[in-house]
Amino acid sequence: MILIIGSSHDDVLYFESKLRNKRTEMIYKKYKITFGTIFNQEIALVHEVYTSYLSSLLTAYVMQKYYVVLVLLVGKCVALSKDVRPGDVFLSRQIFFGDVNQYGKMDSSLGQIPTLPRFFSGDNYVLSVLETAFNNLSELIPYRFGTFITTNKIIKSEADVLPFSRDNVYFGRKDALVFDSETGGAALSCYLAGVSFVSVKVVEHYIGEESTVDSYVEVLKRYSFVGKAISAAIGEITRNDVKQSY
Questions:
Q1: Residue 2's closest CA among 17, 13, 15, 14?
Q2: Fold exhibited by the domain 2-238
């Protein structure tokens, strides 16, 4: 099974429209999970997942109950570095926690949970399959690989990122940086369970800019291309084993 997680319903609507043999159930009497198949691969969709607290909890729940081989996070993010542009599709190579500070405890670095890795890595095989899928789209869509910084707080201004900035370097990185609020929790659960994950999100705007109707409409336009690429990747992944890349 492949689990696809979104924040809003819009984030997963494309996949929902492509599912065959749909059925639903409730998690904790609050969160609806929709099951079905795409290219004969069993898919589970869940949305209304806001913050890493929820993404970690719901990911762990589904992985404990079902045989999940891959977790994909979709939706939108905001860009920190100027080499990333609004409208770009951003794919996760590394994930850092932006609101974890256990510095010095058991030799932990900033953003690191003690005894766990400093960052979590997206699955290299899945990233390569997604790269091929995006390159094969009828319309070329700009996409980037880079670093997600996850915080449970909405990042509204550059002042919000100062606590983990050192001379405009964030966790040792300057380029290809975006923020979201969900990827980190799911990445943590996947790491502990030995399940692969990748986050594929559309950049809505830069930190310090406001979300507008126009910017969100542009994100929605990208969602269909993201959905097509991920669906094509699912077809390829169905024919091959997903291997853990930590």
A1: 15
A2: Rossmann fold (3.40.50)
